UniProtKB/TrEMBL annotation:
The keyword Ion transport applies. One of its GO terms (cellular component) is plasma membrane. One of its GO terms (molecular function) is chloride channel activity. This is Uncharacterized protein. The keyword Transport applies. Keywords: Cell membrane, Ion transport, Membrane, Transmembrane, Transmembrane helix, Transport. It is a multi-pass membrane protein.
Amino acid sequence: MPALLSHAALQPAPLLRHRQPGAAALKRAAVTVRSRPALLRTSAVASPEANEPKYGLFSDERKEYSRKFARPVFDFERWKTHRSSSRYLRHVLGIFESRVFRGLAAPLGYVMTLATGVALYHTLAEAGYLTDVPDLKLTTNAPFGLTSFALSLLLVFRTNSSYQRWDEARKMWGSMVNRSRDFTRQALGYVPESQPELRSMLVRWSAAYPRALMCHLRPNENIAEEVKDILKPEEVKALVASTHRPNYCMQVLTACLKSAQLPAAVTSNSDATGCVPAGAAYRMDENLTVYSDVTGGCERILRTPIPLSYTRHTSRFMMIWLTLLPFTLWDSCRWASLPITFIVSFLLLGIEEIGVSIEEPFTILPLEVIARTIETNLRELEATHGPATLGKAPEGALNATELLYDMIPSASPNGNVKSFF
């Protein structure tokens, strides 16, 4: 458990300390909103060739590495290109450079090797070079006609189920964007300016939460690197030392909310708005509950795949189906059966590959761009509310870790944190 932090943690973070209220702050916040996502958009879709480790051209390691470059964030120009009529030719010409094609190199190689062997076998047999050999042709297409619809149903189910998981993950992160704005708006509106350190902490930790969740859902992410420009050094150390970082962020926000001097309840029969301030804490806590729901929903998607029987049976079904395909095509297509086999195999295997690729959505969704959007939105809200972070923490005020230990005494390493509540 990390050591207790000094009360200096309640002072504004370095990036916020020199922010001036008013027009200048708003202008800087607007520039940040415009520029930072643009930089991330560029890096998210940059070519993987620049600093790519030395992987085999068709290796699984290269396929996993390239997933980080499949996180596009669309703007108006990209939508225009996406709708362009030239997309048909552009996409066909880019087949051999596509990640789907590279990911299918091994099964496509197997099918094409088999198809080539079948063609050579029949050619040599018909030329008389092979005698007393069995006939390897399938004289009827009935088995393919009877099984094609079943294969189609499996592929449709596989792809639809994977897309639903991808869409649910994106919607949950979109909900986080909305709730973070709402929570910060409420915090800056209700927490008095006499508690500037608390307002600053609420903004900092609200911006840190999506970064912590992103690192929680992805492998090989550096949480300290992600939050070093958002939290203060001692706060970064405390967050890194925690086991479940998203939960830690929510606990800190809860402790901040508990210590806030929110307006007291004022009820009046003649004042319809009299009860509104009394509900501020409850409404803010509801937003934190949504954070918890998002965390749990993302963990559910990450830990629970589509039932493995569907994935296994679809793979077996398709490979058996494609293995028999060259034997059926030879009589009617001869050597043209090779390109036909390649095209059919690529199309069917590609559908299944896409379904498998998007089944785990967090390594292909642009979560870093969403997290940066949240951060810039919160900083702009903070600038809008004036000198919220210019003051210093009063002597003896609690920092983030001490707030958490005071709220949950059992989490404290010594159990004797001074209570301020």
